[in-house]
Design a protein that fits this description.
With about 350 residues, this protein is α/β, with parallel strands linked by helices. Helices cover about 15% and strands about 25% of the residues. The strands form 5 sheets. An 8-stranded mixed sheet has the order 12-13-10-9-15-16-18-17. A 4-stranded antiparallel sheet has the order 2-3-8-19.
């Protein structure tokens, strides 16, 4: 896995191209923020040219966002593996899963002991005669991965393995990220399933918490890879946790501060959990954010196993959509995900 860490460099011709398609009426501060964000996302696989676009945020505020379309796959590390194929497989041949606040290796022994791990004798995800794990991979694995209710007539006790190559198309996501965060009047811990939490610098989505109870309730497993990400045919590859050594990092403007890893859907920056001396900030609020001179308000991520990258949003959120030509009206973000 690659760990990219860099400092900001002067923007090149990309910004000049971008403003040609910009919305009108943006402030100088919004224009400068856009320029900074375009540079930050040079590690992602960008489709087309980022632009400044009109957007309606989750609280109804009409403002300007950076509109950027990216290939929904990390540009700087491989994805997978996810499901082991035998109960004798090692951790290198399987992925990860969250169990009781811990990140566990999904190796053969994990599959063999699911009934003990979850204290439920209905778990039986392998052939007792051969030791082969019941895996749904390739195209059918991606179909099941996109249907957490398992309404695809697949049996229970299956390990779902969806690879990017088996989706059958290149998945892209278009993000509208506010250029000037608009504070919410009342902070809520609800993070909707559509917008996600934010966008990593390598183009992968920081997603809402994985619906573990729903997945496990069907005696199904959808493991993450070693970067605690996995794939479905609608969102592409996305993270449910932040793992050291995975994804691009950018040095903070303050010496010793945690590195920046992306931007939240409300426009605030997202940083690693710990500062460079290994300590966590003591003044984080319920959203995992705080104000620091020189950096402004920003978030620090939760521990990987929490299945909750940040706690909540301190500002109104923009949009993440699959239509590169679409508009952003985040007041509609409460709609259920695409079936």
């Amino acid at each position: 896995m690659n760990f990219l860490k860099r400092s900001l460099k002067p923007i090149s011709f990309v910004f000049a191209l971008s403003v040609a398609t910009a919305a009108t009426g943006q402030t100088q501060a919004q224009t400068e923020r856009f320029e900074t964000l375009v540079e930050l996302y040079q590690a992602a696989t960008i489709v087309g040219v980022p632009s400044i676009a009109d957007c309606t945020l989750s609280g109804g505020e009409e403002t300007h966002c950076m509109k950027i379309t990216v290939v929904a796959a990390p540009s700087d590390h491989i994805t997978g593996p996810y499901c082991p194929t035998s109960i004798t497989d090692t951790a290198e041949e399987g992925g990860k899963w969250f169990v009781d606040g811990e990140v566990r290796d999904v190796d053969g022994a994990f599959i063999a002991n699911l009934s003990e791990i979850y204290d439920d004798e209905e778990w039986q995800m392998f052939d007792p005669e051969t030791g082969d794990v019941y895996v749904r991979a390739n195209e059918i694995g991606c179909i099941v991965a996109g249907d957490p209710n398992n309404e695809t007539d697949q049996p229970s006790n299956i390990c779902v393995d969806c690879g990017l190559a088996f989706i059958g198309r290149t998945v892209t996501q278009t993000y509208f990220i506010p250029l000037d965060p608009v504070a919410v009047s009342e902070v809520s811990d609800r993070i909707g399933p559509n917008s996600g939490i934010g966008l990593a610098f390598n183009g992968a989505k920081f997603d809402a918490p994985a619906p573990l109870d729903l997945i496990l309730g069907g005696h199904t497993l959808g493991p993450f890879d070693d970067c605690t990400g996995h794939i479905n045919p609608y969102s592409g590859y996305h993270y449910h946790g932040v793992t050291e050594g995975c994804g691009a990092r950018v040095d903070a403007a303050i010496e010793g501060h945690a590195a920046q890893i992306g931007v939240a859907m409300d426009g605030h920056d997202i940083y690693d959990r710990l500062d460079l001396d290994g300590t966590q900030a003591a003044d984080l609020d319920a959203c995992r954010g705080h104000e620091v001179e020189g950096l402004g308000y920003h978030y620090h991520v939760n521990p990987t196993a929490d299945n909750q990258i940040i706690g909540c949003f301190a500002a109104e959120t923009g949009c993440s959509i699959s239509d590169a030509d679409g508009m952003c009206d985040a007041t509609d973000s409460g709609r259920p995900p695409r079936p």
